[in-house]
Amino acid sequence: MSSSTLGRCRRWASPFTKANCSNKLLHSAFSAFTTRTSTNIAEHDSPSRPPPPPIRVGITESSGRGVFATRRIRAGDLLHTAKPILCHPSLSAIHTVCYFCLRKLKNLANSLSHGSFCSEECKERSKGFYDVEIRADWLAFDDYCRTHDLKYPLMVKRLACMVISGDATTDSLDTLQPTSLTTEMMLEMEEGFGLLRNALTKALMTDENVAFLTKQWYISMLARIRINAFRIELVGGSYEDLLSSAVASVEAEGAVGNAIYMLPSFYNHDCDPNAHIIWIENADAKLKALRDVKEGEELRICYIDASMDQEARQELLFQGFGFQCSCSRCLFGD
Ligand SMILES: C[S@@+](CC[C@H](N)C(=O)[O-])C[C@H]1O[C@@H](n2cnc3c(N)ncnc32)[C@H](O)[C@@H]1O
Predict the structure, then answer these.
(1) pLDDT block averages, 10 residues each, the chain of length 334
(2) Which atom, in ligand 1's list, is nearest to the CA of 65?
(3) 5 lines ligand 1 (CB under 6 A)
(4) How many domains does the chain have?
(5) What ipTM was reported for this prediction?
(6) Are residue 70 and residue 90 in the same domain, yes or no?
(7) Residue whose CB lies within 8 A of the most ligand 1 atoms, among 1, 8, 174, for a mutation test
(8) Cβ atoms within 10 A of the Cβ of 66, count?
(9) Distance, CA of 269 to CA of 66 (rounded, Å)
(10) Considering the entire predicted model, what is its pTM?
């Protein structure tokens, strides 16, 4: 993630071999998300079908799974795009961005207190979770998030509503690496869990629909969201060239919300990254190469502000993401 991203973490024992890991993960990632590469479509047999993105998911030597180039990539090339599995606006942006895609709303005068949509399409695509959500009283839950300055429980709330409406399954995030949690951290999550379960049980008048919503499920979702969520900052405009998009991501306004993706979650961190993730108008992400990349090279993004000194970077990555960075810059003490 750029200086804009938050959430991501440690460990993982892969049940996959190198080969089937890349196949299975790419299949699940791409069946759910739109993908395009910058390669000229005219070079390929079928002009109507975009070529596969120039990447695969594989196992790295020291950082679990990672994303690798399957061919030479040029600086500025679009690697692929990705649609979120789920996203949620920041509480401070609820009245200013679309409740589904996080696009800035044009007409703020008509925005609703529980979220508005930028288009009929977004409204239609939200119908499942929104119909569940508006039946419950979220005052206590939202207050809890606001007073503790928490954003991830809001994402678990949305996922829970998506599961109840049939828009998602309880295991939608299971492929993602979870962070390790201390007993203290898990105890802190209990209040949020109680408030979420209470709001939904009261609204649905039955335990049956919320049977999946156990403390264990809630904590396990938060453990994955903490390490894999991206903080969305929109850069606006049309930033197709490398320099403008890099400048735009530095100059982007504050976060409009947070989102979880499948494929972007497999990019490891580097303090001198060769790729970056960017959001132009909404939560649909673009992954781009920052410099020329050789076939087989791992593509890495930067999770934090890379301009900090080594000690500050290591501290932030350890505290926020739970790992000791092993990138070349850190190994050489830069
Ligand atoms: C968002 S995940 C990236 C994908 C992950 N490797 C996987 O297998 O799902 C972030 C985790 O990857 C590992 N990781 C990412 N960048 C790393 C780095 N520079 N040094 C060491 N571990 C890293 C850490 O375990 C970190 O918690």
Answers:
(1) 34 28 45 36 56 95 96 97 97 94 86 84 96 95 96 97 96 95 94 97 85 97 96 77 55 81 97 96 97 98 93 91 89 87
(2) 8
(3) no
(4) 2
(5) 0.99
(6) no
(7) 8
(8) 18
(9) 9
(10) 0.84
